[in-house]
Amino acid sequence: MRHGRGPAIERLPALSLLHPRPLNRGMSFTIQITTQPTSEPVTTSDLHAWLRLNTTDEDAILASLITTARQQFEHLTQRAVLPTTFRQYTDRIRHGVTLLRGPVTSITGVHYYDGNDNLQTDSTYSSDIVSLPARIRWINPLTISLNVRPPVYVDFVAGWADTSHVPVEVCTAIKLLAASYYETRSAYVTDNLKELPRGFAAVCAKYALSLDGDWSHGGNRWEDRFREGLV
Question: What is the mean pLDDT of residues 16-30?
Answer without folding.
Answer: 45
